[in-house]
Amino acid sequence: MSKRLDVEIRAGLRGFTLDVAWTAGDGVSVLFGPSGSGKTLTLQCLAGLVRPDAGRIVVDGRVLFDSVAGIHVPSQERRLGYVFQGYALFPHLTVRSNIAFGLRRCPAAEQARRTAAVIERLGLGGFEGRYPRELSGGQRQRIALGRALAIEPSLVLLDEPFSALDLPLRRTLRDELQAILQDWRVPAVLVTHDFSEAYQLGDSVIVYEEGRVRQSALRGDLLRRPASESVARILGFRNVLHGVLRDATAEHLRLEWRGQVLEARAPGDLFSPPSPGTSVAFFVRPEDPRLLRKDGPPPDAAHHGNILAGSVVREVDLGVTRVLMLRLDAPGPPAQGEYDLEIEVPRFVYEVLNLAHDRRWRFSIHRSSIHVLPT
Predict the structure, then answer these.
(1) Terminal CA-CA length for the chain
(2) More reliable by pLDDT, 97 or 169
(3) What is the SS3 assignment for 370?
(4) Neighbours of 23 (CB within 10 A)
(5) Which of 113, 155, 230, 344 is within CB 3.0–4.6 Å of 286 for a Cys-Cys bond?
(6) Distance between CA atoms of 272 and 267, rounded to whole angstroms?
(7) Strand order in the sheet with 62-66
(8) How far apart are CA 299 and CA 364, in angstroms?
(9) Which residues, listed in sequence order, are joined to residue 345 by a DSSP beta bridge?
(10) By C-alpha distance, which of 279, 271, 272, 285 is closest to 242?
């Protein structure tokens, strides 16, 4: 049977106002957004550590907070597992005692049974008597998760569990966390400002900015259809650009941008194009444009889509890929300061095309690679 989480929170804290409403189901729901946007405060309200000024919180049909009805279930009675940033393990307690900490109100036999079951299931057998300082980062994460899961929670809350870790360890522990949550089949709410974490771990993503929800969607839908230019920028999209709509049909849009006319595929039934002459925002993923070989046949728009020309004015070496900053052969200032467009190419393409020395190129952008954002 699927579970449901309904959240409506209004809370003011130290000059900051949180006013959000969203729902989630089974799996992992990610609160994503920049630091200071209200993600951790939301988690604290869910856990009962902070009492909202108004709103309602319902977990799997159980009302934990309702300002109108005067309901505020104490934190210790909510049966929610909380994994704090940095794990917050007790350094003076052993693995066994850390995991059993949330079971203090249970009879001794029940404590022992649940603790042993968690230790076995998380692969911590043989470490029961050790202290957190004697364990690896992955083992400490499992202890923190074990403490949260031992109470058999209806929901697990995770507050940026990887923020203090270096990148290789973060990737390893992210994989491990994903496997554990899938194995236990317990819904979770995870806070992060790292979109790679949000996309890997989340089934749905709730985008926060300045104490508000900007979009809530399944992760795939979020990438395909950000709700606004603001959401696209929060997600870290590059090449968020502005043009003017020339005309629109059910299949295609034509945009004027930097003296060029670009043809884009219409976003679909949910999109209502503005009237011609209206300014619109759109984005092009850096990996989508294609450099056109100079020794190949002349390009044609029917096959390649939109064909443009420009010069590489700067580049960034990312190891296996290179990001090229191109300035178009067009009048007026570039769209992004020094350049108009970022194009990301594999290293072998960079070397085969001799891009280190040959800086002038024609390139194509297919109609389907131009994503027009709702106004």
Answers:
(1) 39
(2) 97
(3) coil
(4) 14
(5) 344
(6) 9
(7) 16-24, 5-13, 54-59, 62-66, 71-72
(8) 9
(9) 322
(10) 279
Quick one: tokens of 114? 């649940």
Nearest in space to 360 (alpha carbons), one of 290, 294, 306, 299: 294
Structure tokens at 305: 């889509």
Q: Residue 345 corresponds to which tokens in the numbers above?
A: 């190419």
Q: Which residue has the tokens 């939301």?
A: 42
C-alpha pair distances (Å), 81 with each of 91, 93, 107: 19, 19, 19
d(Cα 31, Cα 160) in Å, to the nearest integer?
10
Q: Which domains does the chain have, with CATH numbers?
A: 5-232 (3.40.50.300), 234-281 (2.30.30), 290-368 (2.40.50.100)
Question: Which are the contacts of 154, defined by CB distance < 8 A and separation ≥ 6?
Answer: 3, 59, 60, 62, 79, 80, 186, 187
Distance CA 26, CA 103 (A): 25
Q: Which helix (H) or strand (E) holds 282?
A: strand 279-283
Q: What confidence tens digit (pLDDT) does each residue in 246-295 have?
A: 998 878 899 999 999 999 988 765 557 678 899 999 999 999 999 998 87
Is residue 273 within 8 Å of residue 264, measured between CB atoms? no
Q: Give per-residue pLDDT as tens, 51-110.
A: 999 999 999 999 999 999 999 999 989 999 998 887 888 999 999 999 999 888 888 899
